[in-house]
Amino acid sequence: MTGPITIRKAPGRWTVRSGGAILGESVNALELSEGDLAPVIYFPREDIAMAFLDASDKKTRCASKGEASYFSIVNRSSVTENAVWTYENPLEALTPIRGHLAFVLSESVKVEQI
Fold it and tell me: How far apart are CA 87 and CA 108, in angstroms?
């Protein structure tokens, strides 16, 4: 079950890694909480090494956030398809996450507070 969405500045410094490579580090990340779902960290695009990301054709629609676009992570050892999402034009209440990227957590993709 989901509920109200809140967005706040994520405290401290955050990093995202894939396949051992550091994709980004930020002190300006945002934390989005939605009901009983685990919070999601959104990184400002300028804090992510975009050279590791390739735009994907995948799009999804969330009634509470809008349309999401996806990227795949490409590094020397692997490609992790559709592992990153962004809301380029989120619904009005969620404009703080515009220009931010969130990551699908997996064995090869880690988001951590450092």
Answer: 23
Q: In what order do the strands lie in the sheet with 14-18?
A: 21-26, 14-18, 109-113
- Residue-by-residue pLDDT tens, the chain, 114 positions: 467 899 999 999 999 999 888 999 999 999 999 989 999 999 999 999 999 999 999 999 988 899 999 999 998 878 899 999 999 999 998 999 999 999 999 998 999 999
Amino acid code (one letter) for 90: P
- At the second CATH level, the architecture of 5-113 is Beta Complex (2.170)
Q: Where are the domains of the chain?
A: 5-113
Q: Let me know: does 89 contact 67? Beta carbons within 8 Å.
A: yes
pTM to 2 decimal places: 0.94
Question: Side-chain half-sphere of 24: how many Cα atoms within 13 Å?
Answer: 26
| Closest residue by Cα to residue 41 from 99, 109, 112, 114 | 112
Enter the DSSP assignment of 19.
T
